[in-house]
Amino acid sequence: MRGHVDAGPPRLVETAPTGTAPDHAETARPDAGRLLGLSWVHFLNDGAANFLPGVLPAVLLSLDQPVRMAGALMAALSIGQTTQPLMGWIADRVGGRSLIVIGLLASSLGGAMIGRAGSMGSLMAFLVLIGLGSAMFHPQAMAAVRAVAPVRQGLLTSAFLVGGELGRGIWPTVASLIVTSFGLRSLWIVAIPALVSVPFLWRWAPRLPARRRTAGALGWRRQARPLAALIGYRGLRALVTAGLVTFIPLLWHARGGSLVGGASIVTTMLVLGVIGNLAGGQLTDTLGRRPILILSAVAMSVFIVPIALAHGVWIWVFAALVGISMFLSASATVLIGQDMFPGSKSMGSGIAMGLANGLGAILVLVLGLWVDPSSLVLVFWVLAAIGLLSTAFVLAFPPTLMARSGDR
Q: Following DSSP, what letter does each residue of 307-325 receive, concatenated?
């Protein structure tokens, strides 16, 4: 399929009338080059959009803000994420690939401006811009991935998600190193890779077809129950994830640890999550989605509290186990969202990745309102309980959404 790179999108994308794969998709081959390029820009987008926890102690100190404001900042970062279904609906209507490019630029430039914020108001404005950029990027990017990877969708969707996980994991430590070496105002460096990659992105991203206005209704009422289950499951999981990346560095800092040390724990958790993502994608293809959703939630919850109680190298060990468990279900939930709305895959991706994640992350604000250095350990017990609670939503998914990818 190399010849398609310069000539436009693959034939699979051009011939799909409503954004879905045609019947012969099972015989198509994935475009590895484009998938790798999309994973790279996913790395850049999610890195720029999620490095705040790595520098959060320094940001709070520079603005003379207490620990309880950490939740408010993370909530501001997540507000824009809740618009992903809307961005997905727009992406399906307009087609093309412009929202991928605009989203990457907005999240990267917003991240570059964090170090220039002189007040809480301006900082929150930059954080909202980051969230909006990420909301524009993800739905259309996920639809593009499914277009260039029509087979083994669980595993290949995981390959794309790995880019985002590596970005979320590596960039907090990179940002903390930039801050400790050059100061907060030097965070503009984070935007450079994205600016360099944008011209190539026009070649990597396929031009998706616009959803025809005459296409059938989306079927909101028919999907009400599984939609509520998806939002509930992903929302609670997002609350746990955002809580961990917010409060791990703060707990480490409260115990006298360095900025880079706290960021490295988050990096370990998210980067090692790549193992869980790839394993979960493969297991989703072979075992089905329901057992993976349950296993991910239970295993993650078991390893959360030891992070707050352990000492020495064991902190990083348990952080790695949480990360692996956390991302086992990543590709399964994205595919569920897309399969709910097969004629509007960008919007389905936006619901699975954005709305639920954004709502869950905003709830970190509630935790942050009563957190002080003396109650940080208790937060980890609460997060573990919330993770277990998410398993209740798995039972509400109908069997048609729980099948192996190869059986669909």
A: HHH--TTHHHHHHHHHHHH
Q: Are 329 and 297 in contact (CB under 8 A)?
A: yes
Cα separations in angstroms, 170 against 58, 259, 319, 353: 18, 14, 14, 20
Question: Cα 90 vs. chain centroid, distance in angstroms?
Answer: 20
pLDDT, tens digit, 9 for 90 and up, residues 155-197: 677 778 888 888 988 898 899 999 999 999 999 998 999 999 9
> Taking every pair of C-alpha atoms in the chain, what is the biggest distance, in angstroms?
61
What is the Cα–Cα distance from 169 to 54, expressed in whole angstroms?
A: 10
Contact assessment for residue 340 and residue 401, using Cβ atoms and an 8 Å cutoff: yes
Query: 227-236 as b/e, with b when 16 or more CB fall inside 10 Å?
Result: bebbbbbbbb
At residue 205, the 3 state secondary structure works out as coil
CB 186 within 8 A of CB 64: no
Q: Tell me how far apart the alpha carbons of residues 328 and 324 are, in angstroms, rounded to a whole number.
A: 7
Q: Return the residue matching tokens 């990597």.
A: 204
Pick the CATH number of 31-211+219-407 from 1.20.1250.20, 3.30.43.10, 1.10.10.10, 3.20.20.140: 1.20.1250.20
DSSP, residue by residue, 64-88: T--TTHHHHHHHHHHHGGGGHHHHH
Residue range 248-260, pLDDT digits in tens = 988 898 888 888 8
Sorted by where each begins, the domain ranges of the chain are 31-211+219-407
Torsion of CA 57, 175, 181, 110, to 10 degrees: -90
pTM of the model: 0.68
